[in-house]
Amino acid sequence: VQVVESGGGLVQPGGSLRLACAASGFTFRSYLITWYRQAPGNERESVAGINDLSGTTNYADSVKGRFTISEDNNKNSVYLQMNNLKPEDTAVYYCSARGPIFASRKYAYWGQGTQVTVSS
Fold it and tell me: Which residues, other chains included, contact 43 with Cβ-Cβ below 8 Å and sequence gap of 6+?
């Protein structure tokens, strides 16, 4: 049982990347899926999240209007489309799944992270 991130890389300021988070051994159905990031010397912060049951999304103020989180249930994957990237978006990005939402006992799964570097 794991989640695996992919899609990171080096991009110039103003560029775009799409990160993918794939679930293995379980399904994202009824889970909260959240993208976090951690830059060197900083604490891990929540970037964007999606509630699989309601479809509700939420974003950190720093990425609103630039990042979009979405889900493909057929592929059991969640994506983070990042546009107009800035140097301050440079970080390791992690995917986390917590649920099932309706269960009294919840599980939390974390990926290994994928590096995003925004630099000219």
Answer: none
